[in-house]
Amino acid sequence: MLKSKIQSLERISSSLSVVFKILKSRNIATTTGSSSSNGVPKEKVDCVVIGAGVVGLAVARELTLKGREVLVLESASTFGTGISSRNSEVIHAGIYYPPNSLKAILCVRGRELLYKYCSEHNIPHNQIGKLIVATGSSEIPKLHNLMNNGIKNGVGGLVMMEGSDATRMEPELRCLKALLSPVSGIVDTHSLMLSLLGEAENHGTTFSYNTTVIGGHIEENRLSLHISETKHLENWNGKFPLQPEMVLIPKLVVNSAGLSAPVLAKRFDGLRSAVIPPAYYARGCYFTLSNTTICPFKHLIYPLPEDGGIGVHVTLDLNGQVKFGPNVEWIDGIDDVSSFLNKFDYSVMQGFDQSFQVLDSLQLIL
Asked: How many CB atoms lie within 10 A of CB 36?
């Protein structure tokens, strides 16, 4: 059976060598062999994970540890180049989400599992804690409501503090009251992804970079994936249909394509639109504190959450570097082509510095 599979794959055009060499060398195709339709080769496989960000890596690792054969398709040249490497690297406690919501449940449980994983795999992290502050009297009731929400979600150790106590903890901070979340922390996301990647590969996961899922269709209650080499999409403008270079027919598909996940799902013919959540795009920018040899903060410092976000905040990385941000700019004009190809404008918007209120003395006014 293996010999016939290899012979079948060797008949395929060399221009499709990226995935085919992987299928041949690792023999991840199922025992039913390969076929073709309209000259496009087709392969049945076990599991396909779309996207090699932190979610895709974690899913691939878990599936492989469960004994599944996993192929990860990543359109970029390496792992973690999207939103997995564009974030505050904060381990959240689970304070903000509605009680009993899936987000609240996953955040609290995920935080516990993440700390455990980081400790067991020597991934740099630090449970430094977070202060959420009220700077005006009208914000104090909201801060108490936030504390009660966190308690309902099962977040332990929450403490309501007077502003003077918060200032003793953070001399550059001025506020009326602060909510201390001691279980919040930070993590080195690149080290985390490297660990997940290494474990997945060591247990048999196969990674194919520069490989884009351009769409798919449902056939016999299974999702067929249309794939192409990423370089063939460089000049695509959406005005002509994309033709697959190969079709994969997995038993299981996980769409972890980050910002491109919703628009990719729309390209799966036969998938009901009602099951595809809407996408609301926003972008944000950070300021980095420089010209100081001593980090002025020891904790994460957050304002009360606002509509659409948790506010411009102070975060630290594991080297003690301070970042202010991100602010939030809602984006209305992302077209499906840009979203699908993961082409987003990351330039700093004008007037960005007005989102922050920082005194020359580094006293932070949130």
From this structure: 14
Clarify whether residues 29 and 173 are in a common domain: no
pLDDT of residue 360: 37
CA of residue 129 relative to chain centroid, distance: 22
d(CA 97, CA 95): 6
Q: Taking residues 18-47, what's their average pLDDT?
A: 65
DSSP 138: G
Burial class of residue 344 (count of CB atoms within 10 Å of its CB; 0-12, 13-18, 19+): middle
Distance, C-alpha 204 to centroid of its chain: 23
Cα dist from 10 to 6, 45, 65, 132, whole Å: 6, 17, 30, 60
Q: Cα separation of 223 and 213, whole Å?
A: 12
pLDDT digits (tens, 9 = 90+) for 179-229: 999 999 999 999 999 999 999 999 999 999 999 999 999 988 899 999 999
Query: What gap in Å lies between CA 43 and CA 30, rounded to an integer?
Result: 8
Map residue 51 onto helix, strand or coil: coil
Domain termination site, one of 239, 254, 275: 275
Closest to 304 in 3D by CA, of 157, 130, 184, 100: 130
Q: Cα(67)–Cα(311) distance, rounded to whole angstroms?
A: 42
* Residue pair 364/314 in contact by the 8 Å Cβ criterion: yes
Asked if residue 111 is part of any domain, the answer here is no
Give the pTM. Answer: 0.85
Cβ(245)–Cβ(229) under 8 Å?
Answer: yes
User: How do the residues of the chain divide into helix, strand and coil, expressed in percent and rounded to 5?
Assistant: 30, 30, 40
Claim to verify: residue 287 and residue 237 sit in the same structural domain: no
